[in-house]
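Predict fold of VOC domain-containing protein; 140 aa.
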Amino acid sequence: MASPGSRPAFSYTVLYVEDVKRSLDFYSKAFGFKIRRLDDSHKWGELDSGPTTIAFTPIEQRETAITGGVHIPTKGEHRPNIELSFSFDDFDAAFKHAIECGAEEVAKPEGKVWGQKAGYVRDLDGVVIRLGSHVHEPHQ
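Predicted 3D structure, encoded as C-alpha cells:
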C-alpha cells in the first residue's frame, strides 16, 4: 500500500508485438516518436513519448508464470479494451502520414462535439490508435 501523501506515477504502457524493432521503427516513422532504447536481444524497446514511456516486448515474452499468453486482435474482431491516443497540431497531415507509413485506417476522421477532430488506425500488430487534434479550452 502506498504511504499517505504519495501517489504513483504512470511509467509505462507495454505493447506485446511480433517484432520489437519493426514496431519501434513504425512508431518512429508514422507518428514521429524518437526511439529511446532497443536492447541487444531485441526483447525490449522504448519510445521517448513524454512523461510516460511506450515500451515494446515480444508476444512470447513472459516475466512470470501468471501473465499467460497474449491475444493479438484480428481485423474482424471487436477492438481491444485499450487504445493509444496521440494528439497533433496538424491532425490531417498526421493521419495521412500514419496511413502512408502502413497504419490501417479503422475509422475516418470526423469532428467531435467537444471541438476535436479524430480518427482511428491500427498499428502493424492490431493495436488501435486514436489520432486527434489538440482540444483547446474555451476562452472565458
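The mean pLDDT is 86.
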